[in-house]
Amino acid sequence: MSDEHWFERLADATGATDERAPAKLASKVYSAVVAGLAERGPLLDLKDCRRAGGHLCVFEQTLTLLPRATGIGTMNPCRVCHARALGERMEHAPIFWPGCPYSEFHNG
Amino acid sequence: MRVDRHGGGNLCFRDNDGVTTRGSGTVGPSPNTPEALAAVDGEQELIASVLRGDRKAAARLVSTHIDAVYGFVRLRLVPRADLVDDVVQDVFLAALNGLTTFHQRSSLRTWLIGIARHKVEDVYRQRLRSPEALEAGDDVEPEWSSATADLDEQIDAVRVRSQTRRVLAQLPEHYALVLLWRYWEQRSTREMAAAIGASEKSVERTLARARARFRELWEQQRRPSTSGRQ
């Protein structure tokens, strides 16, 4: 087997991966993606997210009680949530709220 | 995921069935099966939801594809592990910016891996562009014994993968990058030379040294376990 062929075989044998990304990286990427979406315009209202089948966390559910006209449902409450802060900094963050994406990255 | 080359320099991506996902992944079904069509519908719906600003869909997008993107980038940036997180994040932000132009000629995962490939090659270009990068050598002669080369006897996917990663991490950065670029990204020496403004000869010389150094470290790592079994 030539040197060239040996390396081609090695690359073939090791090119695939079944690694999981660290949960804190998933958290950071999610935060960046949502921040990117928010820069383009208002996010989809939380009530509409729920209607589309999305699960809301307890804090988001509370916000849906406010009138739609306040516009708060289109904001990004995760930006100021301690779950985000923990999720982005710890690998096994102690966050367990159903419907919280950070909790799902860490426990999913 | 591997890249297959076809005539005319076209690239065609082959999905990597070894990739696992956190969420309801879309890898697997063959084209035109009901599962494949459902996966396409699911991706269309996911993309439309993200573009509407649905944060829960954004979470699904990240959750479903981050493992594949991370695995791809991590292996190819073994010598620069400090850049992996930033590159992965850049991939998703670039995808977000280009989502309106994604026409589903490939799966969403294949498209994301294509973006990751470009980002990784940006790093290769930046790191190897300086004139000294390729010339900085260590004095290893490019030779090895083909008698020890039977990879078939050594293939044990997990062990080989981790040994490969260890050896790549031990190499000087420019050696690891040229090897990854040449063999894992399947770029020709001509393409590499053009991308970094170097001569093809100098890329070939560096590759020869890099291969020799890699093989030397590879054999060193094999020896203890081989002798331990006897």
Written overview of the protein:
The complex is a heterodimer of chains A (108) and B (230). Chain A contains six helices and no strands. With 108 residues, chain A is an all-alpha fold. Chain A is elongated, with a radius of gyration of 20 Å. The termini of chain A are far apart. Chain B is mainly alpha-helical. Chain B folds into two domains: 121 residues, Rna Polymerase Sigma Factor, Chain: A, CATH 1.10.1740.10; 95 residues, Arc Repressor Mutant, subunit A (Orthogonal Bundle). A two-stranded antiparallel sheet of chain B has the order 1-2. In chain B, strand 1 and strand 2 form a beta hairpin. The longest helix of chain B has 30 residues. Classes of the chains: A mainly alpha (108), B mainly alpha (230). Chains A and B meet through helix 1, helix 2 and helix 6 of A and helix 2, helix 3, helix 7, helix 8 and helix 10 of B.
Write the layout of secondary structure elements.
The complex is a heterodimer of chains A (108) and B (230).
Chain A lengths: L2 H12 L8 H18 L5 H6 L6 H6 L18 H8 L11 H7 L1
Helix pairs in contact in A: 2-5, 2-6, 5-6
Chain B lengths: L1 E4 L5 E4 L19 H18 L3 H22 L7 H15 L9 H21 L2 H5 L15 H4 L2 H14 L2 H12 L4 H8 L3 H30 L1
Count of separate DSSP helical elements of chain B: 10
Instruction: Give a count of the beta strands of chain B, DSSP E runs of length 2 or more.
Output: 2
Question: Number of DSSP strands of chain A?
Answer: 0
- Please tally the helical runs of chain A, counting DSSP H or I stretches of 4 or more residues: 6
CATH superfamily of the largest domain in chain B: RNA polymerase sigma factor, region 2, helix turn helix motif
Round the Cα radius of gyration of chain B to an integer and report it. Answer: 20 Å
Report the end-to-end length of chain B measured between terminal Cα atoms. Answer: 37 Å
Distance between the termini of chain A: 44 Å
Given helix and strand content, the structural type of chain B is mainly alpha
- Helical fraction of chain B equals 55-70%
CATH architectural type of the largest domain in chain B: Orthogonal Bundle
Unreliable segments of chain B (pLDDT under 50, ≥5 consecutive)? 1-29, 141-149
Domain module count of chain B:
2
Task: Please provide the ordered H/E string of secondary-structure elements of chain A.
Answer: HHHHHH
Mean pLDDT of chain A: 92
